[in-house]
From TrEMBL:
Residue span, Thymidylate kinase-like domain: 8-178
Name recorded for this polypeptide: Thymidylate kinase-like domain-containing protein
InterPro entries: P-loop_NTPase (IPR027417), Thymidylate_kin-like_dom (IPR039430)
Length: 191
């Protein structure tokens, strides 16, 4: 079996993890992955603090390395499974473009080759609904950053730059089944 790579992206609090988990459960060959994970997840706090402030380039390279690491894992997993990945290259590029870096999503780079997604789903959500969901789970550092309307609009504008790379799935209702049905349209093996 040559498995598929499905990337689920969107603003924090939009339901990317919930949708990915639900789609993975629906797929008998599904495996869930979130980036950064493994050793990169363990070091994330350090890189999001001091390193990000001192060296935005090093911060970007850390996240790019976490995607390369995930891609190598995905390559193995795809031999027998479909991989549902929360956050991937598009997220790394978008967040660092918002931070002022002039970068693009490059799947073949100096010393690396990334697995290309078969489908990328951008989880869209009404801002009022997103804020209510975040209030229930508690605000992370990025949630607080995205409270700033200008910054949030920058993130959305950067995602729109890559609109031809993804399908939009609205997740503004309280019924995850609604979002699943919208996503499955783009994932015919789950129909």
């Amino acid at each position: 079996m040559a498995g598929k790579l499905i990337v689920i992206t969107g603003l924090d609090g939009s339901g990317t993890s919930s949708l990915a988990e639900a789609l993975c459960k629906r797929d008998p060959h599904g495996v869930l992955l979130k980036t950064p994970d493994g050793p990169f997840g363990e070091a994330r706090e350090l890189f999001d603090g001091e390193v990000r402030t001192l060296s935005p380039s090093a911060h970007y390279l850390y996240y790019l390395a976490s995607v390369v690491y995930a891609s190598d894992r995905i390559s193995e997993l795809r031999k027998t499974n479909n991989v549902y990945c929360v956050r991937y290259l598009i997220d790394t590029v978008v967040s660092h473009r918002v931070a002022g870096m002039d970068i693009e999503p490059i799947y073949e780079g100096m010393g690396y080759s990334l697995q290309k997604p078969n489908a990328t789903l951008f989880v869209n959500i009404d801002e009022y609904v997103r804020q209510n969901r975040i209030a229930l789970r508690g605000k992370s550092g990025l949630d607080k950053v995205l409270d700033d309307l200008d910054i949030r609009e920058c993130f959305l504008a950067e995602f729109r730059r890559y609109a031809d790379h993804f399908h939009v799935v609205d997740n503004s209702t309280d019924d995850i089944q609604d979002a699943i049905q919208k996503a499955v349209v783009f994932l015919p093996w789950l129909s």
